[in-house]
Amino acid sequence: MNLTVVILAAGQGTRMRSARPKVLHEVGGRPMVGHVLDAARSLSPQRIRLVVGHGAEEVRDRVGAPDVELVEQEEQLGTGHAVQCAGPEFADSDWVLVLNGDVPLLRGETLRSWAEALAGSSHDLGILTTHPVDPTGYGRVLRDDQGRVTGIREEKDATPEERSIGEVFTGTLAVRGERLGPWLASLSADNAQGEYYLTDVVALAAAAGGVLAHRVPDPGEVQGVNNRRHLAAVEAAFQERTAAALMEAGVTLRDPARTAVYGKVHPATDVVVDPGCQFEGEVTLGAGAHIGPGCVLRDCAIGEGARVEANSHIEGATVGPGAAVGPFARLRSGTVLEDGSKVGNFVEVKKARLGPGVKANHLSYVGDAEVGEGANLGAGTITCNYDGHRKHTTTIGAGAFIGSAVQLVAPVSVGEGATIGAGSTITKDAPAGALTLSRAKQLTRHDWKRPEERAKEEQD
Ligand code: UD1
Ligand code: CA
Predict the structure, then answer these.
(1) pLDDT band for position 224 (50/70/90)?
(2) How far is the CA of 419 from the centre of ligand 2 (A)?
(3) Which end of the chain has less neighbouring CB within 10 Å, N or C?
(4) CA-CA distance, 190 to 200, in Å (whole number)?
């Protein structure tokens, strides 16, 4: 079957009250229209045409792809006009499927089973309908007394009686290619909004031989987004769907409603996620990993059995098997924690490799560093990696012991098994196996008196 998919995404989305084109508002961390494109792709169509208008450049930048042809609708004269802009050579296609760019939760599966039913039917047009709890704002599906679809009435054109109809059009429609051109050409804008409604094609098809209407049982799947309340409802439904898939895959979400995924999580089994976590980009979770409450994980991999304690923020990092992070740790881009290493509270690590079993338990900054196996960084260890102009590297050998409150002024290296005395400022390489320290001498003055004592002595 030769299939063309047309996705309507030219509208401004006035009701969003936004400078951003409506279809670029995000659901699950991705533009709405990106979800629609995925559903379209799952049908393996011959071509996908995306009708853009408002913010065309931005839409192109965000979702443009080699398999998507962009068509510009310069003036938004209605959904029928938008489809016309994607033409006119529809007769080459067996079927043309029209999707609204603002209906992001529609599943590829739903489209596939419907497309099969359509292809096997004698009808020239098919629509997806549903029964939402509140049909306000949608086009209503008109049926005759034998239940046959006769047309769609837009809310603004509907009589009170028509508005009481609970079945609505989802914005998803498929037409035989040879029929579409002539039907679109006969549309008029003689209606409440002065627009060329794509939905008027349905009455033409009904008169010409009938419409195959297919009901989507879950209205949430086909909820359209016209304002921010709809966006929030769709986001919630998306999160619910994502959480269900994670649990299906063997993840314990201790509070699914308080788990947010703005991207993709790839979990192994027996992962536990505490309430209030947020996942962004691509996140991999190893078997048995435990993510404590309130963590943000962005584009990172957490190893098997690793523990991330409460309120940690991890981005662009790899946490090895059995490693421990947090509470209140921050791992930034380029961090690699090897097996069993530990980064504790109020520690920031950036572009650094911590070898197996390394410990940085308290209040440290480790940036641009290589830390060998088993080294211990005491509380308050700071790598001074930036001279105000360039970044420099700190190398710490395996088994080294860095005392508390040490500044390592990079570029600098500490040899294997070296000990650095607490409070040192290390500016030159410290040799392996030895104690290196740099401290001002401690001084005690016994002749010293407190100011109040001095004042009293002067009085006397
Ligand atoms: C549309 C349907 C309505 C249906 C609802 C489902 C029409 C006339 N109405 O109404 O029956 O119940 O979707 O969600 O089709 N667009 C363009 N160019 C235009 C106008 C719109 O590309 O000139 C795009 C919009 O960007 C949007 C989609 O078409 O992605 C739908 O437009 P919108 O204005 O949201 O239509 P609804 O009022 O929701
Ligand atoms: Ca809409």
Answers:
(1) very high
(2) 66
(3) C
(4) 11
C-beta of residue 369 within 8 angstroms of C-beta of residue 393: yes
The average confidence (pLDDT) of the chain is 97
pTM of the model: 0.93
Task: Quote the Cα angle for 23-50-169, to 5°.
Answer: 65
Pocket of ligand 1 (CB under 6 A): 8-11, 23, 51, 73, 76-79, 81-82, 100-103, 138-139, 152, 154, 168-171, 197-199, 224, 226
pLDDT tens, residue by residue, 110-130: 999 999 999 899 999 999 999
- Whether the per-residue pLDDT at 460 is higher than 90: the answer is no
Listed in order, strand segments (DSSP E) in 147-276 are: 149-153, 168-176, 212-215, 251-253, 259-267, 271-273
Torsion sign, CA atoms 14, 242, 325, 395: negative
| CA–CA–CA angle 279, 283, 287 (5° rounding) | 110
pLDDT at 12: 84
Write the CB contacts of 214 (distance below 8 Å, at least 6 apart in sequence): 114, 117, 126, 127, 128, 129
Q: How far apart are CA 124 and CA 209, in angstroms?
A: 8
Q: Which atom of ligand 1 is nearest to the CA of 81?
A: 23
Closest C-alpha among 95, 33, 88, 97 to residue 65: 33
Report the candidate in 192, 203, 145 with the shortest Cα–Cα distance to residue 169: 203
Spacing, Cα 45 to ligand 1 middle (Å): 22
Angle (CA) 159-200-142 rounded to 5° is: 45
Catalytic residue annotation: 362
Q: Give the DSSP per-residue string, 253-270.
A: ES-GGGEEEEEEEEE-TT
Exposure of 417 by Cβ count < 10 A (0-12 exposed, 13-18 middle, 19+ buried)?
middle
d(CA 35, CA 427): 53
H or E, element range at 37 = helix 32-41
208: nearest Cα among 124, 126, 131, 283: 124
What are the backbone angles phi and psi of residue 394, rounded to the nearest 5°? -115, 130
CA 281 to centroid of ligand 2, rounded, Å: 27
3-state secondary structure of 68: strand
- The atom of ligand 1 lying closest to the CA of 101 is 30
